[in-house]
Structure formats: C-alpha cells, structure tokens
Amino acid sequence: MLKTEALEQGLSLTGEVDFSVPANITSTFKELLSYMLLILEKMGYPLQAVEKKKSKLTKARHKWTKEVSEKEFFIDTRSSKATVMWIKRNQMLIKKGATMMKEAPLNKDGSVGFSAKMGDKIRSENLDKFKNFVTTEDIILKSVNEVGLFLYFAGTNSWLEMIDKDGKTLNELTVVE
Hints:
By secondary structure, the chain is α+β, with helices and mostly antiparallel strands. It is built from 7 helices and 8 strands. It has 2 domains: 1-43, no CATH class; 61-176, no CATH class. The strands form 3 sheets. It has a 4-stranded antiparallel sheet.
C-alpha cells in the first residue's frame, strides 16, 4: 500500500522489498495510512515528489556565422524601414536609403527615456550620414541593439524585427540553445 502510494506520487524507490497485504487488512491499513501521511506531512516530510522549479529564463545568446554575414535582413517597424547585414561579430551594416523614426516616443509621464537618449547619441555620432531621416550612405554600428536605437529608438526586440527574404528572424538563425 505504502509502495503504491509512493509510486502514484511519482517517487522513485530504492531497495525494494516486494510483499503483499492481505485483503482483510487493506481497508484498515488505508485509514492508518492516511493518518501516517498527515503526521509525516505536518513534520515536514510529505510523501510526494518534489516539483522541479523551472529555471529562470536567461538572456538569449546569439552566434555570428559566415552564412549569416552573407544574408540581408529587412526591418519594417515603428515608421522605420531598412536593410541591414550582420557583417562581423561586432559590426552591423545599415544600408544606404534606410528611413528612420523621426521623433523618439516619450515615457508615460512625458519625460525623455533612456532609449531616446541613447538613440539621439548614436544619431549625433552619425549626423553626416543621414539627411531628413534617410541614410545617405552605409552606416556601421556595433550591435543589433544599436541598430534598433539608431533607426527606431528601440522599444521592441530588434532580434525579432530583422527578417530575411525567407521570413526567418535574425534570432531564429543565430540563437544558441
């Protein structure tokens, strides 16, 4: 009986001894078993499998490859359109002709957010490479996140916004499991 209860709860048993309880004792034993399980539980020894906690999600890691460096990815989000390439591990190329979001969205309280400040900083470093919010020459930035900040002040996961001609995201092609 106790063995059956343990197995039903998903516990694995060690040092198994196999014996059977006569039918006339089973009903009495079930009542006694419920009291024993209650006492064990109150003492901090519940007879049930310990639930495995899900591991916390960690930030995704992405790996640059030669194959990815040869693909063009297209961005069409938040009033911004661009063609980008991940040319080296720490170099993202925004091709000439990309349209940029004109004004950074403000926080709910009307203040300028961190993304807007960072986006403006990256734009000021590349002032000579765009006019009227359209890039006039190719621009090389350091990361996918910088591209998102430069073009549309972030606000979305840029790894999911960059899509190749086959409809696959940059995330799908590069994430390390």
